[in-house]
Design a protein that fits this description.
Radius of gyration: 21 Å
CATH superfamily of the largest domain: Butyryl-CoA Dehydrogenase, subunit A, domain 3
Number of helices: 11
Structural class: alpha+beta
Helix content: 40-55%
Number of strands: 9
Oligomer: single chain
CATH class of the largest domain: Mainly Alpha
Shape: globular
Bound molecules: flavin-adenine dinucleotide
Strand content: 5-15%
CATH architecture of the largest domain: Up-down Bundle
Distance between the termini: 41 Å
Strand order of the largest sheet: 2-3-7-6
């Protein structure tokens, strides 16, 4: 593990950070960088070794996430779905045949997986989704639109949540499917124009009478797709929290370097106590978030239920990351508002972390709901 972290740290410093501007300008990650990411095994970090991945524990995964998040979040986003929301449905609930068929190609990065839950009419209230999957002999016929799907333009397969039982309106009527790109009736919308994270792409995925083999129902079981999605999101929230820690560390490093170099009133601005307060508050909050993420990751490795802890980590770390981004811009002064410095880009990039994989408000609801449920036991 120490070797992996060391290699990754060097890769981030020597390859990813220097490529950040090009990615922001072209909205593409250079193919040579993608090839190096494949070579390092980054697409298969969390895929078990028996399916050719690195099989990292949760603790090891968050240590890797701390490192990779020190470069532009777009790089992480490309490998994020294969390691997280795109593949985990298969890993936790897929049949052996499904795992053998897809996981090795996801681990190598030959195939990109997307996770398609959100719809135009259902975001936070994901259980109200309307995409339908009607059984027809050995197939399911899928109809509906999925929105904001990360890596949809690149994806070779989609984990799709759809309603197999229209008579059950909530979570119980939902099933999860693997849908391959190129299946007749699957269309990818135009790539969304976003506030930040250039180089990471999202788009609508539209299903129009798309016939999917019944063998692609995850776990060969109807009605448990929402449960699969929630299990995936518990882990995903910890991963995003770790990314927030890494991104905050990078922004604070940049702000510290600037504060030491920039002179006003005849001395480095780092010597002013009001600047020091911003540096110190950021350092302490990052340390708190890092400790929380490591603790929750270890608990998950010990098979504890970490639904509350994962939501606490996602909420605290993403809000912390937003505060650190804001202070880091402030420390840069006018230079923080123009794009010559990375902080202008990071400020926009990290705004997403408080929104996806459950907004801050949804994390608050999860935490409080679990507290109340436990109080009633
Ligand atoms: C760049 C990007 C990538 C994404 N990638 C994916 C992906 O790969 N796959 C996928 O399935 N989805 C993806 N999403 C979707 C994302 O998960 C949703 O946008 C998010 O869950 C919020 O849903 P919404 O946008 O519909 O907002 P809404 O649910 O409409 O929420 C709007 C506001 O209302 C608040 N709110 C909602 N309900 C409540 C409540 N009960 N109490 C208090 N406040 C509430 C929310 O917190 C928010 O502030 C992505 C989104 C973006 C922007």
């Amino acid at each position: 593990m120490a070797v992996l972290l060391d290699t990754l740290s060097r890769f981030v410093r020597e390859q990813l950070v220097p490529a950040e501007n090009e990615v922001a300008e072209t909205d593409e990650i250079p193919e040579s960088v993608v090839a190096d990411m494949r070579e390092l095994g980054l697409f298969g970090l969390c895929i078990p070794e028996e399916y050719d991945g690195l099989g990292l524990t949760m603790e090891e995964e968050v240590l890797v996430a701390f490192e990779i998040a020190k470069a532009s979040p777009a790089f992480r986003s490309l490998i994020g779905t294969n390691n997280g929301i795109g593949s985990q449905g298969l890993i936790v609930d897929g049949t052996e045949e499904q795992k053998r068929h897809y996981l090795p190609r996801l681990a190598s990065g030959e195939l990109i997986a997307s996770f398609a839950l959100t719809e135009p009419g259902s975001g936070s209230d994901a259980a109200s989704l309307r995409t339908s999957a009607r059984r027809d002999g050995d197939f399911y016929v899928i109809n509906g639109t999925k929105r904001f799907i990360t890596n949809a333009p690149e994806a070779g397969i989609f984990t799709v949540m759809a309603r197999t039982n229209p008579d059950i309106p909530g979570a119980g009527g939902i099933s999860a499917f693997i849908v391959e790109k190129g299946t007749p009736g699957v269309f990818i919308g135009k790539t969304d124009r976003k506030m930040g994270q250039k180089g990471a792409h999202t788009a609508d995925v539209i299903f129009d009478n798309c016939r999917v083999p019944a063998a692609n129902l995850i776990g060969s079981k109807e009605g448990v797709g929402f449960k699969t999605a929630m299990k995936v999101l518990d882990k995903g929230r910890l991963h995003i929290a770790a990314i927030c820690v890494g991104a905050a560390e990078r922004m604070l490093d940049d702000a510290l370097r600037y504060a030491v170099e920039r002179q006003q009133f005849g001395k480095p601005i780092a010597e002013f106590q009001l600047i020091q307060a911003m540096l110190a508050d950021s350092k302490a909050e990052i340390y708190a978030a890092r400790s929380m993420v490591l603790d929750a990751a270890r608990r998950r490795d010990n098979k504890e239920d970490i639904s509350t802890e994962a939501a606490c980590c996602k909420m605290f770390a993403s809000e912390m990351c937003g505060r650190v981004a804001d202070r880091a811009v402030q420390i840069h002064g006018g230079a923080g508002y123009v794009s010559d410095y990375a902080i202008e880009r990071f400020y926009r990039d990290v705004r997403l972390f408080r929104i996806y994989e459950g907004t801050t408000q949804i994390q608050q609801i999860v935490i409080a709901r679990n507290m109340i449920r436990n109080a009633q036991v």
